[in-house]
Amino acid sequence: MENFTSFLGTGWSFPPRFEKRTNKVALVSDEEDIHESLMILLSTRPGERVMNPLYGCNLDDLIFSPLNLTLKTYVANLIETAILYFEPRIDLDKVQISENDDLEGELLIELNYRIRSTNTRRNLVYPFYRGEATDI
Predict the structure, then answer these.
(1) Residue 102: its pLDDT value, please?
(2) Residues 6 or more apart from 20 whose CB is under 8 A from it?
(3) Residue 47: how many CB atoms within 10 A of its CB?
(4) At what angle do helices 69-86 and 30-43 cross, to 10 degrees?
(5) Strand, helix or coil at 71?
(6) What's the pLDDT score for residue 1?
(7) CB-neighbour burial class of residue 82 (10 A; exposed 0-12, middle 13-18, buried 19+)
(8) Minimal CB count within 10 Å: which of 7, 13, 32, 71?
(9) CA nearest 79: which of 49, 30, 13, 124?
(10) Per-residue pLDDT tens for 37-87?
(11) Which neighbouring-strand residues pair with 125?
């Protein structure tokens, strides 16, 4: 049995990968684990996890909604609620949503947060694409 010394957590890397040298799952710890946990939380729809059907955000349901202040406020509230329930290791300071490319429909969701146990401030920028993939 492995001895994990990280007090912020250790989990599987995302996407899952295996180390050829040890024939084990690659693991991430500390701030990297929190970062990957947030990326998974933002990209998961509620109902996708069998044992935890409430886990995730409903961002994909908003793809065809008009981008206005109401939508930005609603998305920020969805994210704040999901982090409140499913990521207890951080305190969310600010959610900022901006359009990166209006023609491509790309939104940049910037999260400013603080890791509770170390009082370390971090940020994450999550690109959310409102358009469908047509250039395949």
Answers:
(1) 58
(2) none
(3) 12
(4) 130
(5) helix
(6) 42
(7) buried
(8) 7
(9) 124
(10) 999 999 999 999 889 999 999 888 887 777 788 888 998 999 999 999 999
(11) 110
